[in-house]
Amino acid sequence: LKLKYKLTALMNKQYSYLHINENTPIYSINAQDLTIFDNDVSLMWDIDNFNITCYANTRLQHWNNTNGANSKCNYFNYTAGVSGTVRFGRFILGMNMSIDGRDGYVVKEMNRDLCLFDASLSMKMLKGKGELKFEAVDIFHQQSNRNYNISANSRTESFTYGLTDYYTLSFVCSFGKPHK
Q1: Distance CA 148, CA 155 (A)
Q2: How many CB atoms lie within 10 A of CB 107?
Q3: Distance between alpha carbon 29 and the CA centroid of its chain, in Å?
Q4: Shortest CA distance to 98 belongs to which of 143, 159, 145?
Q5: Rounded to an integer, what distance in angstroms lies between the CA atom of residue 147 and that of residue 66?
């Protein structure tokens, strides 16, 4: 049984732009404070033919602007899941199930909770030199080609065109003696 825990904190202050009011001669610098707390936890249990790992990652971002429409913003992103493998004879069954979410964003589409599920089945053959593997990625069709990025002053929405859920069948064969 192995337990890993890691906490990371980032705090910085940056000055982004100069605000000039035309009606009165006032010049002010927009001061931005950013605080990020990252929290990673994983618990792994491994015995002869069975391996299971539970993991969680949370990230809290706090923006504070002295000027701007969104003077204070809190964003919370999280991932939690379980992955594991079971070996029986020449076969290995693997799976990964996770919940991926974000909260605190002004635009509703940016707040999300996705349940992601991947699975695989592989078979060792040719005296351990070959492996035939079938893999299914995002079985519940939850992933999207849309991605969001947030900073203190802007929101970026980007699209990528590619596969979000797919199935693969592969065969790998190694020649020669394996290295120790």
Answers
A1: 7
A2: 10
A3: 34
A4: 143
A5: 28
pLDDT tens digits, residue range 102-155?
Answer: 887 766 777 788 888 999 999 998 887 889 999 998 888 777 766 666 655 566
CB atoms within 10 A of CB 122: 19
CA gyration radius, the chain: 23
Q: And the tokens for 167?
A: 């199935």
Instruction: Report the pLDDT value the prediction gives residue 122, as an integer from 0 to 100.
Output: 94
Q: Which letter does DSSP use for residue 177 in this model?
A: P
The strand pairing partners of 42, in sequence order, are: 4, 55
The DSSP symbol for 160 reads: -
Compute how many other C-beta atoms are within 10 angstroms of the C-beta atom of residue 59: 16
With H, G, I as helix, E, B as strand and everything else as coil, classify residue 108.
helix
Please give the Cα distance from 124 to 89 (Å, whole number).
9
Which residue's structure tokens are 């701007």?
Answer: 68
Q: What is the DSSP string of 109-150?
A: GG-EEEEEEEEEEEEEETTTTEEEEEEEE-TT----SEEEEE
Q: What is the pTM of this model?
A: 0.64
Quote the DSSP letter at residue 22: T
pLDDT tier, 71 (very low <50, low <70, confident <90, very high otherwise): low
8 A C-beta contact, residue 112 and residue 104:
no
Record the tokens describing residue 126, joined without a space. Answer: 């040719």
